[in-house]
């Protein structure tokens, strides 16, 4: 697939999807969508609790013309997920994020218009303390 992406990049401009977090926030989800009040606001846990919703966002971006969609895994690190008691599930949540994005991309990929998935990884929500490990 890497060679396919290189070929497409050599031929035309490639469009990346938009902001996953913004789409999630616009949906006005409720705590039960996140799996309960303890997980409210954990967008990455929606890969587990609301895969239909996350897949729908991916499909919306693809239908709007995106060539590349990013996984819903911006905060899927054990450090960030520990804030919700989900640190041990970081791998499973990230894996599910990749599966959902790949399913959506595969659903709309054609020989003439291949679709790609990029993994998303953001910074943590923790502040770096002065003198902390570098």
Report on the structure:
- The chain has a single domain (2-118), classed as TIM Barrel (Alpha-Beta Barrel).
- The protein has helices spanning 2-11, 20-26, 46-49, 51-63, 78-81, 90-108, and strands at residues 68-70, 116-118.
- A two-stranded parallel ribbon has the order 1-2.
- The chain has 6 helices and 2 strands.
- The chain is mainly alpha-helical and 134 residues long.
- The chain is elongated.
Quick one: CATH superfamily?
Answer: Homocysteine-binding-like domain
Q: How is the main sheet built?
A: 2 strands, parallel
Uncertain residue ranges: 128-134
- Total strands: the figure is 2
Report the total helices: 6
Q: If classified by CATH, what would the architecture be?
A: Alpha-Beta Barrel
Tell me the span between the first and last alpha carbons.
35 Å
Sheet/helix structural class = mainly alpha
- As a whole number of angstroms, the C-alpha radius of gyration is 16 Å
CATH topology: TIM Barrel
How many distinct folded domains?
Answer: 1
Global mean pLDDT: 92
Side by side, the strands of the main sheet go 1-2
Order of helices and strands: HHHHEHHE
Helix content: 40-55%
Q: Please report the first level of CATH classification, the CATH class.
A: Alpha Beta
Strand fraction equals under 5%
Q: Give the overall shape.
A: elongated
């Amino acid at each position: 697939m890497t060679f396919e992406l290189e070929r497409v990049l050599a031929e035309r401009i490639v469009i990346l999807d938009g902001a996953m977090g913004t789409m999630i926030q616009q949906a006005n989800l409720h705590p039960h969508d996140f799996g309960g009040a303890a997980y409210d606001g954990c967008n990455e846990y929606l890969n587990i609790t609301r895969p239909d919703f996350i897949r729908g966002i991916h499909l919306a971006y693809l239908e709007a013309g995106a060539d590349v969609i990013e996984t819903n895994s911006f905060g899927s690190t054990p450090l960030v997920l520990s804030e919700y008691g989900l640190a041990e599930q970081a791998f499973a949540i990230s894996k599910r994020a990749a599966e959902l994005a790949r399913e959506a991309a595969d659903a709309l990929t054609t020989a003439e218009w291949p679709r790609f998935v990029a993994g998303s990884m953001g910074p943590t929500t923790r502040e770096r303390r002065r003198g902390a490990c570098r």
